[in-house]
Amino acid sequence: xxxxxxxxxxxKNFNGHPAVNNVSLTIPEGYVYGLLGPNGAGKSTLLxxxxxxxxxxxxxxxxxxxxWSRNALVSMSALIEQPPIYGNLTAYDNLLVRxxxxxxxxERIDEVLKIVSLTNTGKKKTKQFSLxxxxxLGIALALLNKPKLMILDEPTNGLDPIGIQELxxxxxxxxxxxxxxxxxxxxxxxxxxxxxxxxIIADGKLGYEGLIPTxxxxxxxxxxxxxxxx
Length: 230
What we know:
Blueprint: E1 3-14, E2 17-23, E3 26-28, E4 32-36, H1 43-50, E5 58-63, E6 66-67, E7 76-79, H2 91-102, H3 107-115, H4 131-143, E8 149-153, H5 161-176, E9 180-185, H6 188-191, E10 197-202, E11 205-211, H7 216-229
Parallel strand pairs: 4-9, 4-10, 7-8, 8-9
Antiparallel strand pairs: 1-2, 1-3, 1-5, 5-6, 10-11
């Protein structure tokens, strides 16, 4: 089992308080990795460090067997908070803007629209999209550079049950194509049938990392025990 990304004692302080506290992760290549934790646990701060949005106070990040640098972003993508889309443009034109910024062939646009099931949106402006469609377009944007690693921060927030189910299937299909996916959530049922491995974080600390329990009740018990004991 090869490792695509790892961290060693990763820490981020804000005003002297550690939002992320000595976290050491190991993300296997080709896995869907679920980063679980209650709201305010430090999940988003941790993910922002992994993709270079914010810098660690201390600790190390290794990506694809090399110390993390800005060059790693060529092989990574992330969807954190709201999808970065222009509401007055179509799905195709949003992707076209991103291909020019990335230096990616526009031929890739039809490929990613097919992956996220947005091929039939035509001239419809994205401001008219449902939340689920916007999330899928955000993932399409993140897929343009054929990343080795994709980071999705709370991607099902606000989605209805059908949208959540569709997104779960999409995440699994992306992993089957060879992209490692890190997905964060505070809702256990969202990830119980999606991820291969989990890390549970609370109060900025990693309390558990390992394969996901096959039984949802066991996962809930594990989660509650970790959060309670950190």
